[in-house]
Amino acid sequence: MLPRSGDVLRITRAASVQFIEPLYFRVIRVHDWPTYRGWIWLDGYELDAAGDAVERRSIFVQLAGLQGANGGPFARTDGQNPRRGPAADTRPGPRNRARQSVR
What we know:
The chain has 103 residues and is mainly β. The chain has one helix and five strands; from the N terminus they run E-E-E-E-E-H. The longest helix is centred in the C-terminal third of the chain and has 7 residues, at 94-100.
């Protein structure tokens, strides 16, 4: 399940090794840039302890490592099932080239 604009996430080393110290992050945008399977680029704001934005950042993270603001696995409470449907494979490769070929 992709985060949406306004979601607050706790970003830790589980999301990427660059985050030695956990931080809270409010999502502005999820980029649709092609990347490795299971990884995404997020734009947003790093939050301080009071929940105020202190720095705008773009971060590259693993979806599986994202945590909700409470520290648990990221899951949206809007009734959508985060396990529904596989992530789209946007990597260039033989499978995607085969779909684009003309018969």
